[in-house]
Design brief:
Elements: H1 2-15, H2 30-33, H3 47-55, H4 61-70, H5 75-89, H6 101-104, H7 106-115, H8 123-141, H9 161-171, H10 174-187, H11 190-201, H12 210-225, H13 230-241, H14 256-268, H15 282-291, H16 297-309, H17 314-331, H18 335-353, H19 357-379, H20 402-407, H21 412-421, H22 425-442, H23 446-458, H24 464-474, H25 487-494
Helix pairs in contact: 3-5, 5-8, 5-12, 7-8, 7-12, 7-23, 9-10, 9-11, 10-13, 11-12, 11-13, 12-13, 12-18, 14-16, 14-19, 15-17, 16-19, 17-18, 17-19, 17-24, 18-19, 18-23, 21-24, 22-23
Length: about 500
Amino acid sequence: MQDRRHFVRSSITMAAGAASGLSWLPPLSAQDLDVSPNHVSFTADIEPLVSMLETTQGEKVLDRVFDEIQRGRSYQELLAALFLAGIRNVQPRPSVGFKFHSVLVVHSAHQASLAAVDEHRWTPLLWSIDYFKRAQRSDLREGDWTMAAAPTENLPEPAKALQKLDEAMNRWDVEAADAAATVVARTATASQILNLLAKHAARDYRSIGHKSIYLANAYRTLNVIGWHHSEAVVRSLCYAILNHTGDPNPADSDLEVDRVGRSNWKRVQEFSEGIFMNDRKPVESATVARQLRTATPEQAASFVVELVESGCHPDSIYDGIMLAAAEMVSRQAAIVPLHAVTTANAMRFLYRHVHDARTRKWLLLQNAAFIPHFRQSAVGRGALGKTDLLELAIGERGSSDLSDVFESIGSEAAAESILSLAQRPELANRLIGRAREYVFLKGNDAHDYKFSSAALEDYHYIDPQWRARYLAGCSFLLHGEGKPTTALAKRVLAM
């Protein structure tokens, strides 16, 4: 934390007298801090900073942020204020995506900051603040939605709040869920909240996985900024998860996006006890990846049950799911395959952290079933290529020089070079470091941070036999030398 403050303060000192300086910036006014009683409010220590981010004009917000840092505001405080400002000002409807990426991307940017070298440590957070202001402008054009204050009536008793929230989520009842979520956030543990919401966030394919992404990233962000900020976050999560814009109430319908989630609860009963004691068999990961190239959602889930019951460890199944997602990226380097990777990352996180064994098994089936959903959506946008990630040659084309690789990133030749270089751990680490650096310098969209953080995180979870192929597949959506450096990156590096 001290290194981060030192970097920005040093940058400010270096920039003094250059552009506009920072000493002229006014203090926060009383009007800046005013919050309507009809809108959700935050704790007294963070509310002024949230209000500053909300009310400062976009072109001036980074100067105000630099000023706050100079006054002693910590990285953690700024991260919390950014996350809460997005939750209060950007509506997760009609889809938990689009402008709401300003919230979804916060933890991804934080991950990028943790992995960055000192000179780039602040860039992801500063970029996220700038991106929030863009999302806020979009929300303003669409009606200026603001999250309402917490309900005060029809609140369930604390002892029954978790049950009432579960029932309301099952009924897709927004008002009842909001009331129960308010009490749950005040009384339940973080583990109880995650365990309950995971089975609702991952149950349907609406918003192409963003519900699971939001839950996983919100949980992780609260672990960084503190769970005393959780009330508005949990309420926002429930509101987002219950989105079914354009569809009848799913509780009274049998729509395709909900069907496999329901049938997978029945499949969970087919699992014998002790599946987590099976042996990890990397060879089975390739079998899963191949099966997911053609299976329907229902077939994918049934195949996973059969494979696990034959003695395959769930982690080998997950590695196959991740390989299938990365191969989809190599066949169509576009928005839908990108979300196959980020959703698999989120679902695997939920799988690792929920405490209920039945929910864990169900999440494994859901993650496998989502890959065919993504494949079908991708085909609807254009033909998939023919890249076979499992048979990709090791370095027959391309260069062994990192600079050359990133000159041609996004090509099959670059993927072959990455596959070759990543066989050596020290070169793999250099590859990942260079990939992150290009995101800091050239990333200008939330997906740049979301995708790279998910892909580069999951690299370390995948069995060593498959890591290099996973990275090679994901490389089709990484940045390279050809993209221009963003104005924000130039500004930070020039300080």
